[in-house]
Amino acid sequence: MKFIIAVIKPFKLDDVREALGSIGVAGMTISEVKGFGRQKGQTEIYRGAEYSTNMLPKVKLEIAASDDIAAQVVETIQTTANTDAIGDGKIFVLDLADATRIRTGEAGETAL
């Protein structure tokens, strides 16, 4: 099993969620986060004054996937969230040792 963490631009969330649903992803956790990467934030103008923001709004997706579809999940996120602009985000893939469904006690891939 794999644990996939993706940080994407907020306006791409609906497209990514739809695309993941079409390949069989049954669930995910979504968090609104702030952060920065190589672009180091951005400069904006508010009421004529220029100011710098260090943290940009992003959306973090957390998905537990079986080994069978993990590569397809990563590819789907990458192609759907891509805008060819700086700040598109990152995808991290970790090995997931175990998962347990609280309601039934099922463990492993059957808990997904």
Structure characterization notes:
With 112 residues, the protein is an alpha+beta fold. The protein has a single domain, classed as Alpha-Beta Plaits (2-Layer Sandwich), CATH 3.30.70. The protein is 22% helix and 37% strand. Strands 2-5-1-6 form a four-stranded antiparallel sheet, with helices on one face. Strands 3-4 form a two-stranded antiparallel sheet. Strand 3 (42-46) and strand 4 (49-53) form a beta hairpin. The longest helix is centred in the middle third of the chain and has 15 residues, at 67-81. It is elongated. It starts with a strand and ends in a 17-residue tail after the last strand.
Largest sheet: 4 strands, antiparallel
Written as H for each helix and E for each strand, in order along the chain, the element string is EHEEEEHE
Secondary-structure class: alpha+beta
Number of domains: 1
* CATH hierarchy: architecture: 2-Layer Sandwich
Number of E strands: 6
Q: Give the overall shape, derived from the CA principal axes.
A: elongated
- Low-confidence segments, given as residue ranges, are none
Number of DSSP helical runs: 2
Q: Radius of gyration from the CA trace?
A: 17 Å
Percent helix, as a range, is 10-25%
Ordered list of secondary-structure elements with their pairings:
Elements: E1 2-8, H1 13-22, E2 29-35, E3 42-46, E4 49-53, E5 56-65, H2 67-81, E6 89-95
Antiparallel strand pairs: 1-5, 1-6, 2-5, 3-4
Helix pairs in contact: 1-2
Supply database-style keywords.
alpha+beta, elongated, single chain, four-stranded antiparallel β-sheet, 2 helices, 112 residues, 22% helix, Alpha-Beta Plaits
